[in-house]
Amino acid sequence: MKPVAAAPPEPRAELHVVGTSVGREVELLLDLLAEQVGRRAPRVLQVGSRPLLSDRNERNWRGLITRRFGKRARFVGLDLFEGANVDAVGDICSSPRTLKTKLGEDPFDLVICCHVLEHTRHPARAAGNIERVLRPGGLAYVATPWSQAFHATPDDYWRFSVRGLMLMFERLEIVSSFYSGGDVGLDVAYRVMRDGRPELDPRAGAVEQGLFQIVLDHEDNRAVLARQATERLPVSRTYLPTLFVNIVGRRQA
Description:
The protein is α/β, with parallel strands linked by helices. Helix content is 32%, strand content 26%.
């Protein structure tokens, strides 16, 4: 009796690197939020809500939510310090009981945490609190640096990969991920996709490594150093370009 040959493995869908922009991804995020809440007024939390340079434009989060959902939307800005756009002063790394006192009992439909985790002493604790205050099915948008110059506001501790964020946000199903640049006024981003979904397999890093090598070619770096030998700060920022990791996750029940 002849042995039955094993069926050949099904071919995997091709990997695609897709150009996008942060503005486009934010619109898609708000579409997801609208689909999730239906006619109900969304409750939105921004962690680290005092305005940054990148917020002083048409993508201010409070303004975006109000324009999309009207004044019925409930927006809460949380920050370590009082200031513009701050409704509650507190630390996202606090105990759950303390946060509940600051933010109230009602869960949130969307939590925005952009350029904050790298400044927290306990990012895993912050991630757990973000998951905890989300409604089941609620969304979290998290943006963190993968590479960026030191910026102490108030201090600078960590850098993250997509896989690192997935480890911290274990209760989130990743529905979107993309990489974005950090130059103010230049909105450039890309996704790594397979079969219409974000590619989260670490082996996809080989493709991304190839892309980064195009940007960080050794000979190009030598040319930059030769041209700007007396301008140390521009050289350092050219040599280490800013790149942000962005994920959108949905809290599982």
